[in-house]
Design a protein that fits this description.
The protein is an alpha/beta fold. It has twelve helices and nine strands. The protein has a six-stranded mixed β-sheet with strand order 1-2-3-4-6-9, with helices on both faces. The protein has a three-stranded mixed β-sheet with strand order 5-7-8.
Length: about 270
């Protein structure tokens, strides 16, 4: 039996990364951050991968940190506690910085850092009966992993404060209505729907998609002038890229663009 926490499978151009700790509702293990970050880097470098799906084994996405482990951290010096926390922060950064789209597939629920990881992804597919909770306050802790940053993108300060101070569950349907969930599915179908969505975007131009991902991630906090500048910089880069030559040529030639072939070439290859 493998002792790996992250299981890696492939469906066409879609790389599926599964947090596999189902007996503990996929609670975070000490090795998850490093394994998942490494798996994201490997997918980024693999020309056969166009998009990534992150999910949890069984019927639950992630229940967050293991409280047995967290209870022991109070015995550590503050510097060591901070060092261990950077594992989560670096994983969130790895999801953000991955040039390929990362889609979360959530069944059951996402709590604590599990919610942070789900919201860190570029898109989110959720079973209709799944729930989301910032449950830290119930055990005397405060949110981490960017939870408050991600939630503040689509809820008011008042709603954010209520979620964090009460730890109450928010339904997938409410998150969908607020715009945080891209697709709602029946129970047991989130992964299949996420893979279908990933397959759709996997066929796109890799470098243009990475630029688009960056633009979308910074748009909510950038000024109009900053966003105009960023869009202009990326448009100038994209116009000179072989992806634009292929895309425009395919459109004018009334054929389907073959961006997958370009993933195997060096940037700006013609």
């Amino acid at each position: 039996m493998s002792d790996k926490t992250v299981l890696i499978t492939q469906q066409g151009a879609v790389r599926i990364l599964t947090n596999s700790n189902p007996d503990a509702r996929n609670a975070i293990t000490p090795t998850l951050y490093a394994e998942l970050s490494a798996a994201l880097a490997d997918a980024q470098d693999d020309p056969e991968v166009g998009a990534i799906v992150f999910t949890g084994a069984g019927d639950f996405f992630c229940s967050g940190g293991d409280l047995n482990l967290l209870a022991k951290r109070r015995e550590l010096p503050a510097s060591e506690r901070r060092e261990k926390l950077e594992g989560l922060n670096n994983l969130i950064r790895a999801i953000r910085d991955c040039g390929k789209p990362v889609i979360a597939a959530v069944e059951g629920g996402a709590a604590g850092a599990g919610l942070s990881m789900a919201l860190a992804c570029d898109m989110l597919v959720s079973a209709r009966d799944a729930f989301y909770t910032v449950a830290y306050v119930k055990v005397g802790l405060t949110p981490d992993g960017g939870a408050t940053a991600f939630l503040s993108e689509f809820v008011s300060r008042q709603v954010l404060t209520e979620m964090c101070l009460t730890g109450d569950r928010m339904t997938a349907e409410r998150l969908h209505a607020l715009g945080a969930v891209n697709r709602l599915t029946d129970k047991g179908v989130a992964l299949a729907e996420a893979v279908a969505l990933a397959a759709k975007v996997a066929n796109g131009p890799q470098r243009a998609s990475a630029r688009i991902k960056t633009l979308c991630r910074q748009a909510h906090r950038a000024t109009l002038e900053e966003q105009l500048e960023a869009e202009a910089v990326y448009m100038v880069e994209s116009q000179a890229d072989a992806e634009a030559a292929e895309g425009i040529g395919a459109f004018l030639g009334k054929r389907t663009a073959d961006f997958a072939a370009l993933r195997r070439q060096k940037p700006n290859a013609s």
